[in-house]
Amino acid sequence: MGDGKGGGIGVVLRAPVEARTWREFGYLLSGLPLSTLYFSLAITGLSLGAGLLVTFIGIPVLAGVLAMCRGFGRVERARARALLGADVAGPAPVRAPRRGALSAMGAMLKSGSAWRHVLYSLVHFPWAVFGFVVALVFWAYGWGFLLYPVWFWVFPAFTDQPGLQVFQNDDYSLYLDSPPAIVATSLIGLAFTLTAPWVIRALATVDRVMVGALLGPSRLDTRVTELESDRGVVVDTAAADLRRIERDLHDGAQARLVALAMDLGLAKEKLREDPRAAARMVDEAHGEVKVALRELRDLARGIHPAVLTDRGLDAALSSVASRCAVPVRVAVELPARPAAAIEGIAYFTVSELLQNISKHSGARSASVDVWKSGERLLIQVCDDGRGGAAAGCGSGLAGLTERLDAVDGVLVVDSPADGGTAVTAELPWRP
Prior knowledge:
The chain is of the alpha+beta class and 431 residues long. The protein has three domains: 11-215, no CATH class; 223-303, Up-down Bundle (Single alpha-helices involved in coiled-coils or other helix-helix interfaces), CATH 1.20.5; 310-428, Heat Shock Protein 90 (2-Layer Sandwich). It is built from 14 helices and seven strands. It has a five-stranded mixed β-sheet. Strands 1-2 form a two-stranded antiparallel sheet. A hairpin with a 6-residue loop joins strand 6 (410-414) and strand 7. Helix 2 packs across helix 5, helix 3 crosses helix 8 and helix 5 (112-146) runs antiparallel to helix 8 (179-215). The longest helix has 52 residues, at 219-270.
C-alpha cells in the first residue's frame, strides 16, 4: 500500500516537468494560431464558393477549399504525431472515376473525408481558443505563483508597491508582501502547477479524439481495407489448399494407380505363361486398389466430408474425434444448422485442433463443445496436455486465426505453461 501511494505521489510531482506535459502544452499553444488560419481560410473559401455557385466558378472554388482543408489535415496529423504521440493514418486518396478536371472536382466534392476536414477546420477553432486560454492560465498562474518568493522583490525595487496587488478600493489595498501571504501564494501556485498537467492532458485527449475522428480514415475506409486484407487471406488459403490437393493426388493416389496399371499389364502378359504368378500379381493389385481408394476417400474428406453435408456438425465432428489419438468428448448443442460456409470452417477448425492435440499436446483426453450464442457460433476445444501453446507467427494456430479473421471470426488461446489448453473459436452464424 505504501509503495502504491508513494508511486502515485511521485507521478503527480513529476508531471509538471515531464516531456509529455510540455509537448502537449506546446500543442495547445500552437493550435490557436494554426486554427485561426484554418478557420479564416475555410470560412472565407466556403462563403465565396457558395456565393459563386450561381455561376460555374463556385464549383472549382469549393473543390479548391476542400483540397486545401485536406492539406490542413496533413499538417494537423503530423503535429499530433509529433506532440501528442497520436499516429493517425490519413484518409484514402480522392480518386476520380475518369481523367479530367471536371471529374477530379466532382470526386473532391463527393468525398466525405474532404468534408470532414472542412468540419475540423471550422469546429476546432473555438475549441483551440478554449484550450489555449485554459492551458495558459493554469500554466502561467501555477508557475508564476509557485515562484513568487523568487520574484516578488521586483515590486518594491522597481515600483512604489510593496508586492503584488490583489485588491483595492478607495480606503483599502491588499498586497502580497508579508511572509505568510508570500508562502500562501506559493502554495496556491503549487496546487495550480500540480493540477495543470492533468488539465492539459484532458484537453489534449479531446484533440486526439477530434483528429482521429475527423482527419483519419472513415469506418467505411477501414472496413474496406479489412475486407481487402481478408480477401487476400482467403485467396492465399484457397491456393494453398489447391496445391495440397494437387500434391496429394500426384504423390498418393495417382502414383498408386500408375503402378497398378503397370502391374495389371504384367499380369496380363503372364496370364498364359504362368497363371499362378499372374493371380498373385492380380491379388497384389487388388490390395493396391484398396489402398488407393482409402487415400482418395481421405482426400475427399479433407476437401469436404460427405457426412458434414448429409448429417451436420454433430456427426462430422464425432467422426473426426473418433480418429483422434486420445479419447474426445463431443457435445454439439445447436438449434439449427449454420450457413454451409461457416459449418465447413467450424469443421476444419476442430479437425486441425484435434490433429494438434494428437501430435503435440501429450494429452490423455480432450473435449469439443459447440453451441450458439446470439448470432455467433462458438467452439471450444480443450485438452489436459502439457500446455504452452501460442498463436505465434508461423504456427498452425496463427493460420487458423487468419482463416477465422477472414469471416469476422475470433480465435482465443488459453494455454498456461503448467498444463492444459483451451482454444475458443467464435464465428458468425451467417457469413
